């Protein structure tokens, strides 16, 4: 290690004020770090220490062995660095029970055989500790500034790893998620395997820091030294290194995403069904093992709501969403079109749960820090049909387009829709292209609407809730917040206007379908909005 900024018990024993001191027990603990010096002349200390304090005492309160033993156990439990005690003033000898306990816990006991002013010891050691802290902060600042400068021109993240290696003279290990372990400086296969095993065992000679991107662990960096346990300074350097790695990797991902956007003509041709099986296989083999791809699906995200926001960079949004989709088992290809962003999601896991995984990804994107800002726009994804044959990916794109079109008439508070979940909406849209479904629905319910306009009878609302409750009068009254007698009166009036058989199987299906079509084609929040507009 080049500079560890540690003051140990061993270091303190070499200082001038300890010329006439000697260690009588706990020799194995001389490498304990000392963070402060504390004078103790009381019998209860456990609530006064934070750990790594060197304790000074004349022993005036510890003349009884049981009292001394009680205090000594407290010092061990609190993680003190060691005990320095003045002999022949109040205590002439250290009890054997204390010596035995000190050896057992490698807890240094140092005795002064000549009187030394404790104020001189505390001033000397505290000054040294403060100077070390100042030097440590200066070194950290220098390291951080130098690292930031390197980020401007380095071409490989290994340059960052080498810089940490040179700074501390330690072995640096780095592992991107789902990649093999890299070691700086390079080692033989045998030693690399040994380091990998030590990493998994979380040895005391290994310290690690995670490299986090988009709120997820992207990689992990380690440092190793066979003869040293790392302290605060080394861990702070490691933390700054992992931050620099995160910045570099994010920059590389950003540049890579920009290049993908510039080379999207091929993807556009594939979405239009103009590529052959051979060209698709060749293209995919360059980005992923084609044999591991197990079908795919196309999703569309509104481009306008992304570009309208000054606080949301489109490329950064793609990076975040790409990372989330990849975590759910998809290889992600993006096509940035004029008014929308299109994702080709190639499945590399089993097909049985693709929809659940894609739903989880949509939810994660919605809850990401990127979109939590109140000034960021809402986003919407429309998912097409899943295709096992990648030659038919254009069909998934077509159905994603249809889903996106239907979305404009649906509840826009939703974050995503799947084509396969919109059976009834698709059927209504198909019929509406052949017949004026809006006029048909309005004519069918005209008597109810007119009655509601004239009397505020709430028949239309009552009919909808009654059908949703599967004809349960008790549940309907509860949801409408009315008494049962009022409900009976309304249902009687509905029978007069629609017919006594309105709950018969055939007629009920018709009414429910027309209700669905009416609300979908009108797209009101409730019937009152429609009534106001008609009036």
TrEMBL record:
In which domain of life is the source organism classified? Answer: Bacteria
Describe the location of the PucR C-terminal helix-turn-helix domain by residue ranges: 459-513
Matching Gene3D superfamilies: PucR C-terminal helix-turn-helix domain
Alphabetized InterPro entries for the sequence: CdaR-like_regulators, PucR_C-HTH_dom, PucR_C-HTH_sf, PucR_dom
Q: Which residues form the Purine catabolism PurC-like domain?
A: 11-128
Fetch the PANTHER family from UniProt.
CARBOHYDRATE DIACID REGULATOR, PUCR FAMILY TRANSCRIPTIONAL REGULATOR
Q: What is this protein called?
A: PucR family transcriptional regulator
Query: Which species is listed as the source?
Result: Bacillus seohaeanensis
